[in-house]
């Protein structure tokens, strides 16, 4: 077997690190890490969205006032 074959087909060389040997343990850790990363990205996105809404309200006061009035009307007409 030549070195070129190993480079083209890494499955021939077998597992290179311990990750393949553990299997499900790494999957659980990756899932937890990805869940934490997803929550972090979501929090960042929501912060930026809130900031963008505040900026829009600041630069378009008439539209923001109309939106506030519509929201107040919605709340007044809502039946409990």
Please provide a brief summary of the model:
By secondary structure, this protein is mainly alpha-helical. It has four helices and no strands.
Number of helix segments? Answer: 4
Distance between the termini: 77 Å
As an assembly, this protein is: single chain
- Flag low-confidence runs: none
Note the main sheet. Answer: none
Radius of gyration: 27 Å
Beta strand count? 0
Task: Give the overall silhouette.
Answer: elongated
The level of helicity is over 70%
Structural class comes to: mainly alpha
What is the succession of H and E elements? HHHH
Beta-strand content: under 5%
- Average pLDDT number: 78
Walk me through what this model shows.
This protein has 4 helices and no strands. With 80 residues, the protein is mainly alpha-helical. Helix 3 packs across helix 4. The model has no long low-confidence stretch (mean pLDDT 78).
Secondary-structure blueprint:
Blueprint: H1 3-8, H2 19-22, H3 24-59, H4 61-77
Helix pairs in contact: 3-4
Structure characteristics:
4 helices, mainly alpha
